[in-house]
From TrEMBL:
Family: Belongs to the HPF/YfiA ribosome-associated protein family. Long HPF subfamily.
Pfam family name, one: Ribosomal_S30AE
Transmembrane segments: none
Species the sequence originates in: Pseudogemmobacter faecipullorum
Keywords noted in UniProt: Coiled coil, Cytoplasm, Translation regulation
Superkingdom of this protein's organism: Bacteria
Coiled-coil annotated spans: 73-100
Function: Required for dimerization of active 70S ribosomes into 100S ribosomes in stationary phase; 100S ribosomes are translationally inactive and sometimes present during exponential growth.
Domain Sigma 54 modulation/S30EA ribosomal protein C-terminal per the UniProt entry, residue ranges: 130-183
Subunit structure and binding partners: Interacts with 100S ribosomes. Associates exclusively with 100S ribosomes, which are dimers of 70S ribosomes.
NCBIfam families reported in the protein's UniProt record: yfiA
Localization: Cytoplasm
Protein's UniProt name: Ribosome hibernation promoting factor
Length: 191
């Protein structure tokens, strides 16, 4: 597994890097997952340290967690415990996910844009209402079932996930609703 351990305006020492590698290696081995990459980023937010962990599995799933604490080792342990809890919760489904799938998850590439917000002003309305593109990047869209998409969204800690539905090949969206339930948008069924 490839590890990338870094800090945003923080010097991550050799001892902390070794600790992260051993703890994450233990976690991955405990649940018998085939991880390919682990990205761990440490940063500061006022008086607290923040640790963000992103683990990518060979099947295409990714797991993410975040921890905050006054000490750097404690913030890593907080993030690791959250990750452990997520994986424990989905352990059975992850194992069946591996056995049912004939090959790795396929990904499509899609453009992703970040748009600048409209500013409220007293000036007359511009002729074109086209938003200004602030950033342009490429994103990966997995080809999975609805259940796997919900699991991926939960493991990654995201509020929504765009995916290609393996059942019919159409683009779908699952998202976390304000009431805590999961919403599923399937444009194909809108007829």
């Amino acid at each position: 597994m490839r590890y990338q351990i870094s800090g945003k305006q923080i010097d991550v020492g050799e001892a902390l890097s070794t600790h992260v590698k051993s703890e994450i290696g233990e976690l991955v081995e405990k649940y018998a997952q085939r991880a390919t990459e682990c990205v761990t980023v440490f940063s500061r937010n006022a008086h607290e340290f923040v640790c963000e962990i992103d683990i990518r599995l060979s099947t295409g799933l990714s797991m993410q967690s975040r921890g905050n604490a006054a000490e750097i080792y404690a913030c890593f342990e907080s993030a690791r415990e959250r990750l452990d809890k997520q994986v424990r919760r989905y352990k059975r489904r992850l194992r069946s996910y591996h056995s049912d799938r004939k090959g790795p998850v396929e990904f499509d590439a899609a453009p992703s844009y970040i748009l600048a917000p409209f500013e409220e002003s007293e000036e007359p309305e511009p002729e074109t209402l086209a938003p200004v593109v602030v950033a342009e990047m490429e994103t990966r869209i997995p080809s999975v079932t609805v259940g796997e998409a919900v699991m991926q969204m939960e493991l990654a800690g995201q509020k929504m996930l765009v995916f290609r539905n393996e059942g019919h090949g159409g683009v779908n969206v699952v998202y976390r609703r304000d009431d805590g339930n999961i919403g599923w948008i399937d444009p194909r069924n809108s007829r």
